[in-house]
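Per reviewer request, we include the raw input and output of the structure prediction for the construct analysed in the revised manuscript.
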Amino acid sequence: MAARAKYMGAQGLVVDGRVRDVVALNETQLPIWSKGTSIIGAGAETKFHARNVAVKIGETTVEAGDIIMIDPFENGVVAVPQGKVDELLAILPKLVEADEKVIKDVEAGFSVQEAFKKHRN
C-alpha cells in the first residue's frame, strides 16, 4: 500500500491505526506516522475510498490542501490548515528563538519552569 501511495505521488503517510512490515515501509523512504505497529495486516480489506476530501483523524479534521508535517524521528505529526500557514510562518521564528533561549538557560542551571516563564510568555 505504501509503495502504491508513493507511486501515486504521496509525500508521506498518516495512518489512524497500526502499520506492519516496518522494514519494508522504511524502504519506501516515505515519512510515515501511525499510532503503532502490528503483525496483522488489513489485507484485501484496505480499499481506496476518496481523494481530496476532509478526513477526521482522532480529534483533528484535515481538509484537502492542508499542510501535514511528519517527523518520523520524533514520531509526531502536525496538520496546519491552509488558512493558518501565513500566521504560522509569522510566529514560528519567535517560537524557535524562545526554545533556543530556554535550552541555553536550562544548560546554565535554570529549571525548565524558570526558563519557560522567562522566554515563553
